[in-house]
Amino acid sequence: MSDDLCDLTVHRLLRAYRRRELSPAVVVEAHLQRIEKLEPTLNAFTLVDPDAARRAAAASTNRWSRGEPIGELDGVPVTVKDIVAMAGYPTSEGSVVTSTEPARTDHPAVARLREANAVFLGKTTTSEFGWKGMTDTPRFGVTRNPWDADHTPGGSSGGAAASLAAGIGAAAHGNDGGGSIRIPASYCGLFGLKPTYGRVPQAPVDSPFSSLTANGPLARSVEDAALLLNVLSRPDLRDWHAVPHDPRDWRVGINDGIGGLKLAYSETLGGATVDPAVAATCRAAVDRLSDAGADITEVGEVFEPLRPQLEGYWKAGFATRLNAIPSDRWSELDPGFRELAQEGMDFDVHAMAAANGARARLVETMRRFHLDFDVLVTPTMPTLPPTVDTVYHSPGFDRWDHAVPFTVPFNYTGQPAASIPAGVSGGLPVGLQLVATLFREDLVLRTARAALDLLDWSWPAPELVTARAALG
Questions:
Q1: Is 156 a catalytic residue?
Q2: Which of 207, 222, 375, 396 is the most exposed place for a label (fewest CB within 10 A)?
Q3: Among the options 23, 60, 81, 233, which is catalytic?
């Protein structure tokens, strides 16, 4: 029974609570037991607070027993990525050099989840300062993928995806400055949504990557992600970058299908090269959509390679973060982060102006593109999940070639984008990315829902069930 409870979607849990078939106390206890069982292998959490989770679940159980739930997520177990503030707990950002003092206030995303009465299980692992698409740090070690513990779950929201795929939490908070929701969603066979920039308020907004990062959900279903977006997107006065609040229910319209929509498929976006196994799986998924009547046009690169124009932008952000750390502690940092950050110190104001110009041109290119196409479809990742001993941003696994060619462009443009499971290759999941023009999360959600139906994807995939049985 515990296994079944841990795999229920948010909507199925809420329906069971409403019918009094389940109680939050029972459900949360099952998730805590799953953590105790699998966490030694997964290493997906920086902290777990069972007592606080049980107290919150008991309070929620009392509300449901009276027929008086408060908030859209009352009693739903969730996790929070340990890169944002959560009152009462330290914010590690995956580093040994961050403060161990508890945060006094919640990040806006955490505040909205708390107001909705979600039950927090704990905080999940991230690469140091979210710098890479794998999750391993000097402080917390290696986080592993429940599909195969020898492989990474991706990053930087790696703990969020690994735990959710392992059946821990019904949904997870993540954030995405270059693919950090979509990468682990692809590697772990989940639905991951990066909303339009500014849709979900954030604070503080003085990070060097504030203009690239979006907070959003990792979920087991499109409906769950849409509900989470309802909650997370509510306004917060601390973020002056935030777009005006849209009070719609993002679940409305997601079952309208893809009839009448024009889709474009690119396997070579910005000069990307895709591993044959990934290409074959994505191609099969796209062909299946086309055979079912989807209007899909194959397109080419769409825009020029971004690395020559924007690599310095990325490194300069790391340099800004490094400069805030006392130099006598630099030796304690992830060596890969430190190396790139030091390279970024040579990025001057003229180079930044040029990079901003390149970013503006990319935005214009994509806006014109979406005059002809509603949704751009690409592989989410050019490779299958690498093994955990892979050195990130090395000749064997280059960041631009192997990690972010399909994801990072849409952080620069701010467009909504999501990764959906496209299939399985060699026992590992493959993701398909869906991208719409600014503010059109509805198109992403609608297309994702239809695509998953046409691909007959169900949670959990049989391969994942088998893999999890071997974890512990």
A1: yes
A2: 396
A3: 81
| Rounded alpha-carbon distances, angstroms, from residue 243 to 177, 236, 295 | 17, 11, 31
Q: Give the Cα separation of 376 and 383 in Å (integer).
A: 19
Could you tell me the CA-to-CA distances from 379 to 302, 359, 405 in Å, in that order?
Answer: 14, 22, 10
Tokens linked to 70: 């408060």
Q: 345-354, 406-415, 419-428 — which is least confidently predicted?
A: 345-354
Q: Which DSSP helix (H) or strand (E) runs through 411? A: helix 409-413
Q: What is the pairing mode between strands 77-81 and 119-124?
A: parallel
Single out the catalytic residue among 180, 186, 221, 425: 180
Residue type, 260: G
User: The tokens of 47 are what?
Assistant: 């902290």
Q: Is 23 a catalytic residue?
A: no
Burial class (CB in 10 A: 0-12, 13-18, 19+), 426: exposed
Question: How much is the pLDDT for 207?
Answer: 85
141: β partners: 137
N- to C-terminal Cα distance for the chain? Answer: 17
Helix (H/G/I), strand (E/B), else coil: 379: strand
Number of helices followed by number of strands (H, E) in the chain? 15, 13
- Helix, strand, or coil (residue 376): strand
| Single-letter amino acid code for the residue at 82 | D
Q: Which residue has the tokens 């795999």?
A: 7
- The sign one gets for the Cα dihedral 77, 143, 87, 193 is negative
pLDDT in tens, 371-388: 999 999 999 999 999 999
Catalytic-residue membership of 315: no
Q: What is the pLDDT of residues 445-459, one digit of tens each?
A: 999 999 999 999 999
Give the pairing type, strands 375-379 and 262-265.
parallel
Q: Which residues of 285-317 are buried (b: 16+ CB within 10 A; e: fewer)?
A: bbebbbeeebebeebeebbeebbebbbbbbbbb
Tokens linked to 295: 């209007």
Number of Cβ within a 10 Å radius of residue 252: 12
- Per annotation, catalytic residue among 156, 221, 419, 425: 156
Instruction: Sketch out the chain's domains with CATH numbers.
Output: 2-307+347-469 (3.90.1300.10)
